């Protein structure tokens, strides 16, 4: 008997603090004008996507202690944008990256519970740690936490937030047309949580939301991050979009679930993926090269180089060969708090691989950076891209993809118009939404059951 086809999950990421967006493209729009977010979200919903993904921008970008303008430097507050989008969308999930390093559990839990209510059960939280001291200077505590402490705080943060979400059972609230919503249990919302990072107690003042808890995403790739995801996440925002690497990551993380009493289908693997479409594969390949050159300017190439080499290379010629010196191992001093291992597990070995590649293909520094930081996972005609996506999902290299267009806000439209119909024809992607919440879209269960909130309004 043949294996049943997996249903593909698709989402859309509105690019934020990155160098993905090609600002020189005439169709590139504002990243602060609300109309851009509305257009992008409505395109994703028209394509029947599971959710829209919004990053958090708490800082101006820096490297070597200096602000640089290679990409967009920030954006409006994540919760504000997602709450506003809840009013102009009906089905689309609303996912926000909120870090656990410079926030507090009560505040974040209250904001996500509110968003889940206001959106009718479409909220999701990408739990991340914040790595750089430059961001920390915006907050009272300042500084940054070493990697092991960041994950300890993240685990504690999420556990505290779950305590808050679960402080309401659901049957403690009664909806009355004349009196509104009132408590039927005097202990509703009572909580207490204490460990080495937090010592909080009180009353959580947002009733249990439609999903019980927001869908939890995680984006870390270290061993500690993978273990954190296996224990507590509903989905992973992965960077492994190729067949071999994707299958290895998929098998590794899914293989950790049993230790926490979880099934394979209780955690989704969703890599980030960019795309370039053309009428033919050849046309798409030519366009993809143009996009990459626009994304990686000479200055951008040097910044990427410094992140691996962990040293000032501002005098290096981007049109010349790679540096002959090796990267400096250890804590990254180019961007304080950002460990090199976050991107490269062995910087020296990676540098040697880059040199070999550059020599074999006769590449300059910039050309090499264009090659090794290539962001176009899917390049080709709509038929080619649809086939590639389906093959990767059916081969258990992922459960779907979070698409990142290189032009916003309109860059998602070509994919929705040309690739989505082909996936629908294959029977591997929905033609209509069948559920009302993001957990429904993703095929995830409900913490504490789904029927606890019948009749409750917020």
Automatic annotation (TrEMBL):
NCBIfam families xref list? FMN_nitrolo
Which PANTHER family does the record match to this protein? ALKANESULFONATE MONOOXYGENASE-RELATED, C2H2 FINGER DOMAIN TRANSCRIPTION FACTOR (EUROFUNG)-RELATED
Q: Supply the source organism for this entry.
A: Mycolicibacterium tokaiense
Q: Which residues form the Luciferase-like domain?
A: 23-395
Q: Which gene encodes it?
A: ntaA_1
A Pfam family hit: Bac_luciferase
Q: What is this protein called?
A: FMNH2-utilizing oxygenase
UniProt lists the family membership as follows: Belongs to the NtaA/SnaA/DszA monooxygenase family.
Query: Could you say which EC number(s) this protein's record lists?
Result: 1.14.14.10
Asked whether the UniProt record includes Flavoprotein among its keywords, one would answer: yes
Q: Which InterPro entries match?
A: Diverse_substr_monoxygenases (IPR051260), Luciferase-like_dom (IPR011251), Luciferase-like_sf (IPR036661), NTA_MOA (IPR016215)
MF-aspect GO terms: nitrilotriacetate monooxygenase activity
Give residues annotated as binding FMN.
Answer: 97, 151, 222
Q: Which CDD domains match?
A: Nitrilotriacetate_monoxgenase
Cite the entry's keywords alphabetically: Flavoprotein, FMN, Monooxygenase, Oxidoreductase
Top-rank taxon of the source lineage equals Bacteria
Q: Gene3D superfamilies of this UniProt entry?
A: Luciferase-like domain
